Each structure stands twice: as C-alpha cells, then as structure tokens.
Amino acid sequence: MADYGEHVNKDKMLEAIALATSELLENRDFKSAISRALPILGSAADVDRVYLFENTYDYEGKGYTSQSFEWNSGAEKAQIDNPELQGLSFDYIKEFIEPLKNNEPFTAAVSELKDGQLKDILAAQRIRSVFILPIMVNEIFWGFVGFDDCKTERKWRNSEVSILKAFSVSIARAIERGIVETEMARAREKAESANVAKGRFLANMSHEIRTPMNAVLGFLDLLDESELSPVQREFVRQAHTSSELLLYLINDILDFSKIEAGKLSMEIINFDLPGLVKDAVAMLEPKAAAKNVSLRLEIDPGVAHEVAGDPARLKQILNNIISNAVKFTHRGAICVKVFNAEETYDSVLVCFEVRDTGIGISPGGIDNLFKPFSQADDSTTRKYGGTGLGLAISKELARMMNGDIKVESAEGIGSTFILTARFQVIRRGHEFDPRRESLKKSKILIAGSDPACSAAAAAVLKNEGCEIHTADTIARALVTLVGETGISRPFNLIIADELINGAAVCELASAVNSIARLRGVKILAIRSAEYNAGAFKGCEICYCGRIVKPVDPAALVNGVIEAVCAPENLLKPAIVPAADGPGPVSSPSGLEAVKNAPARKLDILLAEDNEMNRKLIGSMLQSRGYRFEFASDGKEAFEKCAAKKYDIVFMDCQMPVMDGYESARMIRLSVAKDKKPYIVAMTANAMRGDREKCLAAGMDEYISKPIDFKLFFELLQRRACEKYGAGKGPLEIDLDEIYKTFRDETGLDEADARDLFFEYVNSLSLNLKIIEDALNRADFKTVKSLAHQLKGSAGSMKFDRLAAMLVDFEEKAISGDIFECRNIYRTIKNMFE
Fold first, then answer.
1. Whole-number mean pLDDT of the chain?
2. pTM above threshold 0.85
C-alpha cells in the first residue's frame, strides 16, 4: 500500500509539474505565470506554503534576498507582507544559502537545526520542515523557491525532489526568457525612440539651419543686384557659394538616411558645368594655400559648357573629394582635371580627376574607403577626423548619375580619385572670341613664386601664340622688364601672383610705375578668393584686372584677352602724364625701384615699450628699406605725433607712463587734422571686444600679437596706396637726366652748369618749405607768388614736368582750393624725396 500511495502521489506531482511548466512556457507575463503555477504545485505537493525569493547584490557584491511571491493553504498566516522577509541578508541565513549558491537543494526539519537566526525565523512562521531549491539564471544565483510543511516534520522522497528540481529549472528558463524579451523590448523601444528622435532632430536641425541660411542667401541676392565693384561682387558670389555649401553639408546627414531608405532622388536642371567646377575648386583654394599646397584646375576646352543634371549633387561630390585631397596633402600640389570620357549625340560622360601628392592609401585601406562611417584606417580617423560618410554618399550619388568613383593610390606618394558622371548636353562650348587673335602679338611677363603654376600658365599662353617671360621675385621681374625695354618690343602685360616671394602684388605695381619707361605696362593680378579685403581696400585699381585662384586655362586666356584689349591702362600717373618716348632708366637693374617703392617712403612711428619687440619689428622694417622711428611709451608717441606728421603709427596698447589707448585718444583730440596719423593697435589681447575697445579709443586698425608680418606689411602697402594713389607710385625726378639736358642746351661748361643747376635745386627745396608754411596758414597770396616765380625758373632749368605742375599749382592758389593745393604740393615734394 505504501508503494501504491507513493506512486499515486508521484503521478499527481508530475501532472502538476506539467501544468505549472506549461503555464510558465505559454504565459509571457512571468508574474501571472508564477502566481498560477505555485498553487498548482503547492496542492500537488501537499504543503502549507510555496514561495519565491529574489536576490539582489550591492556594489560590494554582498547578497540580500526578498520574498516576492507566495501561496499558502490557509492553515497558517501568509508571510508575503512580513517585513523581516524583505532585504534579508545572506549573512543571517548562511546555513541554507551556502548550498543554494552551489546549486544544491536544502532540506531540513526545523527542530534539528542549530539554534540561531535561521531557526528563529522559521519557527516564528510555525514551520516544521522546509525544502528549498535554488534558481540559477545564466549561471547566477538569482533566487530560490521554497516549500514549507507546518503540520509534520516531512521527509522528502527522491522522486519528489527530482520533480521539484525540474520545476525550479522551468522557473529559471522562464526568467531567462523574460529577461531576453524584456531586453529586446527595451532595445526595440530604444531603437524606435532613437529613430523618432533622430528623425525629429534631423528635421529640426534642417529647419533651424535652413531658415537663417535662406535669409542669408536672399540678402546676398539682393546685395548682388546693387551697385558693387568687381571685387565686392566676387566676394558676394563666394559668400553665396559658401552658404550653399553649408546647406549641402547639412543635407549629407539627411542624404544618408534617404539612401538607406531608398528615397534619394536626383534633380535634372540646366547648369554651367565649368563654372560649377571652378566654384567648387575656388572654395577650397584658400585652405590649400594656407598649407602651401598648390591647387590647380585644368578644364579641357572640349567639355560642354551647359549640361542637364543635378548641379547640387555634383558639387557635393566634388567638394568631398577635393576637400579630402586638401586634408591629406601636406606638400606638393593637387590638380583637378576635367575632360570628356565618352561622347554621344546628346550626352557626355565627363571625367573629373583629382590627383594629389598626399599621404596616399594602403591597398587594404582602399577596400574600406567607400564604406559608411569608415576611412582608410582607424589611425587616419583619429588624426584627421571625419566620419567617412561623405565618400559613401558620393559613390552612391555618382552611380545615380550613371557614373562611378574609383581611386588609385600609393601609400606615401599620393592618390587619384576619378569621378565619372553622365549629363545631357545642352551647349557644347562658347563661340570663338575674335579678340583671341590679339594674343598672338602679346609679350607677357609672368611673375610668381610657384614654378609649377608659372610653367602651367606659360604653356597655356604660349599655345595661344604669346611671347612669355617668367620671374620668381619682384627684383627679377624688374630686371627682366628694364632689360627688355628699348631693346625689343615692350611688354603688353604682367601677370602677377598676389604674393611674389612674400611681397604683395601692389609692391610690384608701385615699383613698375616708379620707372619712367615702364609706366603704362598693365598688370593682371592672380588672387585668392578669400584675400583680405580690408588690407587692400582701394587697391583694386593697382592692376587692370584680376583672376581668382585656382586659375583654369580658359579663365586665364579670357583674363588675358580682357587685359590686353582693355581700352586704357588704369596704372598711370594720377596728375602728371607719363613721359613720352623711351629715355634712360634711372635704375638699370630695377633693384632701386623696389627699394624706392611707395611703402618705403612712409613715415612710420613704432610705439613699443618692449625692447625685444622693438628690435624685432625694427629689424623687419630696416631689412626691407622702411624708414621709421621709435617711441618707448604712449606719452612719447603723443609728443612725437604732435611735433611731426607720421603716415602710420603702430601703437602697443600696454605701455608705461601712458598706455596706447590714452595716447590714441590724445592724438585724436589734440593733433592737428592734417597731421593725424593712421593708428594701428598692436596688442596681445585677442579676446572678443578687444578690437572694438581699440577702435573706440580712436585707433584705425587692429593687429594682434604675435604679429602676422604678412598682414603687417600688407597694411603698410595699403597706406602707401592711399598716400600716393593706389598702385601709381610717386612720380620720380631723374636729376641726372635733367642736368644733362640743361647742360647740353645752355652750352655751359661742366663746372658752371653743375654749380648753377644744384644751386637751383637747393633753393627749390627752401622755397618748398616756405610754400608748406604758407599752406598751413592758408596764405594763398604767398603760395601764388612763389608758384609763379618757380614755374618760370623750372622751365629755364629744364624741369619741364615741375613747370607744368606749378602752372596748375598757381591756378589752384588763385582759386583758393586748399585741398588741391596740398595734393599738388605733396606730389612735388615726393618727386624730390
């Protein structure tokens, strides 16, 4: 009978386990499943209480357990609300926790337990026997399930233990499944939330940036319709291009999302293909120039001028490829070539080749190059930045243009990116310009520091039939110009880079115009799109035209045609016309012309208390032939400005006795208007608001320390242009030539002729001083009288230009025109400096 009873009880428990396990497997709500399973098993096992405890661990790994579920038969009071069973430390119940931690069951009669915390807890609940099984989740002691008998000191059979162990395993699997499902649900919710947030962020970002950028573009369009100089119009165009580029960069993020969703579309509109490429390259030329990397553009004449396609997407790709070339190239050159790869009746496959001399890419790196969020290697990403998203988008865009992007590279040598894109041809090219024939008669000097750029320009113009000479410094340019003048036909044009071996193109213009024979040669300047407009304000007439870097062959030829065919040259004397006929040259080597360029004739005051800075700046000025004086504090600077007229004062802001701010204020308030200098603040304070503080004190310009000497000398050149007339240079007097004419025409012997001639020159200097004093008093009677006297003697002494100017001087004195009188006086004075 005992065996039969045991068999019946086993079957009953097996049936209960099956029902409870089914509940745990089918019910996705773990709490509901446990609540249903415990009563089934408790009844089948004939116990008074079944419960589930869940463990927690603190940051030190110390364990605690708390009761979370309970079923009881009603024979004894439920313990689910017993506070002593919440947060129960493992230390208090070590006796059964230790075997459970080792995945072993614990069974005991309470009366047989040692006196202690565990026995007290069980006895307080009127428990007589207990059977506890561990729940191990992912090999971690998650908690335990317990069975209490409050009626008898029960001895658990092996079959019962095995069945209940299976139940504890089922609970563990249900918990594991619940954890996985919860984590998946959270991950799914997080991903969905992230996608929603990303979408909202992208939409908001797009809106927030597009709104002001659209206003910027609108105002730039309005500005472009107003009256602007060619230079200002070019700056507006570049600002417009930059604003559009910013919008394209914002679209990169949106584009990648669209590509993933298959929603990216292409626009088909007509656009100027060469113009678009020029804009894309010009945008990055300043960055390349800042790294001393030459960025060149070559557009084959056969490339269609108007095509149908998506200009924004093409520019987006070009910007990405060229900006990468600039980023990874530290020396050498980047060359962008555009040519036709295939042509049909109405379409063309255009090839855009970007070749650089940068760091190159390893064979393994090329495989990762076009993958999203990748670069050639991780170290490149860390060193150069970037997400690698641009090339992935660019390749997809190229495919949508029925083309592709490929790369050829050698590590340490450089890379060549080859973009192809197909367009419908609208207009194949410009009509032939008949003025092009005039180039075959042109003699041109190319002056620039970059031999590769000069050679490329020379090759293009030689192909047009021009006679080309080159020079890499201003001095060599002048030697070439002077040496050729009078020997063969004169030069028609000088093409000059904005900086020729560190010197500004204005210095070349000034030097050329200080030599009588060269006066009238046109100068075409090649300048970067972001050249400092402030430093050369008013200097656009230093040359007859300008070409924006990088220069492609078509732009170069068009620029030269415009310059050569211009009706008149802007570079000529402002008041006195250039001498007719050749005549001897005062500086056969041309070197003196550089030394005597207008900037060198400025009166400069350097107010600086730091001796080392005085030595440094003084040495820089002296080495370039400038004349200057020092002031060691603001008070001395003010006193010197009150006593003498300076063209420009470089004013340190922090000086003893009187600082630069106070000195500038005193100069503005106390120094006579016609003696007020142009004051440039020099300060190590480069924080926001420091410039405004300097200008508020009466200073005209601001440069921060450490001094950028390129900007420093550009500023000096600008002041010279304003003093002498932009790019025209002072009119020089060749005393030797005038003396020879005087001697030959008078027939005097050498000694008498020289004494008489230089006595006149000395007296002229004295009379000019008297005229200056009279002008300061507005004494027109004295000015008229002296001008009348001097004009007659000037003609007799063969100072023909001076005589002509004195005629004008007398007329202006009679009319009382003080402004014109002072202009003429300054011109005459400069002739003899």
1. 76
2. no
